[in-house]
């Protein structure tokens, strides 16, 4: 059984370094995308404090479709260019939103969410989805979280066999 020694109370740079290493170790020997994304969402949920949702939206036919996640049931489909996830995907850049209530066009899947960070997932230069994390307090995410979650996603991309997704 895999165990990760992740300490959310320690320095963020150490947490995110260990999170990136742990996701690679967790996925070692398994290339199935669905299995690895499910475990990656669970690992991130375990590692990140003060969040209420984290997971993946995968690009399907020009829109983002809900993938593996941890948290309450979520919006199933998000058009590109709509909401934080759709805009991050369309721009192919990480978005950090300190207060989702002030974000024009925010899509509220959970009324308890107050801040959000979305990291686009690119494989061989192509957009394949986004990694989304929500928190119940404003300004939960900062530049260290941005860099750390980008590192997490970049570590995850090569251990996923994206072609195994339906």
Polypeptide structure, described:
The protein contains four helices and six strands, in the order H-H-E-E-E-H-E-E-E-H. The protein is of the alpha+beta class and 166 residues long. The protein has a six-stranded antiparallel sheet, with helices on both faces. A hairpin with a 5-residue loop joins strand 2 and strand 3. The model has no long low-confidence stretch (mean pLDDT 94).
Give the secondary structure arrangement, pairings included.
Elements: H1 12-27, H2 33-47, E1 53-60, E2 63-71, E3 77-79, H3 83-91, E4 95-97, E5 115-123, E6 126-135, H4 143-156
Antiparallel strand pairs: 1-2, 1-6, 2-3, 4-5, 5-6
Helix pairs in contact: 1-2, 1-4
**What is the CATH topology classification name?**
Beta-Lactamase
Q: Which outline best applies? A: globular
Helix content: 25-40%
Q: How many distinct folded domains? A: 1
CATH class type: Alpha Beta
Number of strands: 6
What's the story with the biggest beta sheet?
Answer: 6 strands, antiparallel
Brief digest:
With 166 residues, the chain is an alpha+beta fold. Helices cover 33% and strands 25% of the residues. The longest helix has 16 residues.
